[in-house]
Amino acid sequence: MSNNFVPVGLSNRHLHLSQEHIEILFGEGYELTKFKDLSQPGQYACNEKVDIVGPKGTLKGVRILGPARGKTQIEISLADGFVLGVKPPVRDSGDLAGSPGAKIVGPKGEVTIEEGVIAAARHIHMHTSDAEKFGVKDKDIVKVKVEGKRGMIFENVLVRVHPTYALEMHVDMDEGNAAGIKNGDMLEVLK
Amino acid sequence: MSNNFVPVGLSNRHLHLSQEHIEILFGEGYELTKFKDLSQPGQYACNEKVDIVGPKGTLKGVRILGPARGKTQIEISLADGFVLGVKPPVRDSGDLAGSPGAKIVGPKGEVTIEEGVIAAARHIHMHTSDAEKFGVKDKDIVKVKVEGKRGMIFENVLVRVHPTYALEMHVDMDEGNAAGIKNGDMLEVLK
To answer: What pLDDT sits at residue B191?
Structure first.
């Protein structure tokens, strides 16, 4: 039997904002405030939420994740894309070229980004020591098995290794529902 | 190379109604009217839509599929379940025991069912001749492979064989989005 199990986390729609955009949306000099820590060290869910507006509809009250980033990035599911009327490409975080844009509406202002709306590609965060244990390295592609009535094997799962990461697989809500899994379920990485 | 490919169809939320419930919702003696034929012979999408009401929210304008059935059955995604505030079990069609209920609101009346809200388990309809070609029989469980960025292998796929069926795999919107597939995509059945 394999001991290569990872806990899974389901990512609901969220966005990361540049400091410039934070100040447009919330006011000059504004700083995001922490709602709760996330599993990845240094990352946190913020109290602040904004509306995302697309050509066909609006996603209201979408949570911001902190801290501020170099570039604004909106991560939604394909189902959310139908609501907005945009087709987010499935991309790794930070790979935004050619992705659709959207309007972001905050309490003090709004900003329209020309690109930055993506569906996050499934991936596993690993601490360097986890990667050693699993026998994988940064940017490797692995498969992950889900048991149960909605059992499946996720292919093309990107491994991301960094000394600041905690072991966790991230999928979006479409993927979590399709596989019948919930936060904290343990999934097997196939070699 | 295998020739065992099936076209896929993504099932959006829908419901099947008993004749008794059709008459409560639309009026005495009412008969459903056809909007368009579905891929399965004799099955059709109706012009008629209803609202589905759960403890937390409402799904508005859910399409009815005809013809009338012996028992009313509401098929939604797990994401839809969050909107309604119910947890649909993943079930094969007709297997409704112990599933949650909901209120159905039509133009002439409303009806509350005690059970019947499910998330349809992924399955493949096959004509008898398809089953022969694929080397499977009714109620077999197979795996189905999806290629691409969101590639995966669906496990626990139920095969349903009948002389009136047309070859098609059915998944729900969560599963379709998770796999990055669209109606008519050809998927490989693994032996």
So the answer is: 74
The residue ranges of every structural domain in chain A are 12-120, 122-190
Q: Long-range contacts: B22-29, Cβ < 8 Å, 24+?
A: B22/B68, B24/B106, B24/B108, B24/B109, B24/B110, B24/B111, B25/B50, B25/B104, B25/B105, B25/B106, B25/B107, B25/B108, B25/B109, B25/B110, B25/B111, B26/B106, B26/B107, B26/B108, B27/B108, B27/B109
Tokens of A52: 């995302």
**Gap between the Cα atoms of A13 and A60, Å rounded:** 11
ipTM for the predicted complex comes to 0.91
CA atoms within 13 A on the CB side of A145: 13
All residues of chain B having their beta carbon less than 8 Å from the beta carbon of residue A122 are 150
Distances (CA, A) of B120 to A132, A174, B65, B188: 40, 15, 14, 21
- pLDDT higher than 50, residue B1: no
| C-alpha dihedral, A125 to A131 to A137 to A143, nearest 10° | -70
Please tell me the pTM assigned to this model. 0.93
- Strand pairing report for A44-53 and A34-37: antiparallel
Q: Give me the mean pLDDT over the A156-184 stretch.
A: 97
Residue-wise pLDDT for A76-129, tens only, equals 999 999 999 999 999 999 999 999 999 999 999 999 999 999 999 999 999 999
Contacts of B149 in chain A (CB under 8 A): 90, 121, 156
The answer to whether the CB atoms of B79 and A173 lie below 8 A apart is yes
Fold of A122-190: Barwin-like endoglucanases (2.40.40)
Query: Do A78 and B149 count as a contact with CB atoms less than 8 A apart?
Result: no
**Confidence at residue A1, expressed as pLDDT on a 0 to 100 scale:** 45
Q: Best residue in A122, A149, A156, A187 to probe B by mutation, most B CBs within 10 Å? A: A149
Contacts for A147 with CB less than 8 Å, ≥ 6 apart: none
List A109's β-bridge partners, or say none: none
B180 contacts chain A (CB < 8 A): yes
Asked if residue A6 has pLDDT above 70, the reply is yes
Rounded (to 5) percent helix, strand, coil in chain A: 15, 45, 40
The first and second tokens of residue B71, run together, are: 């028992």
Alpha carbon B29 to chain centroid distance?
A: 26
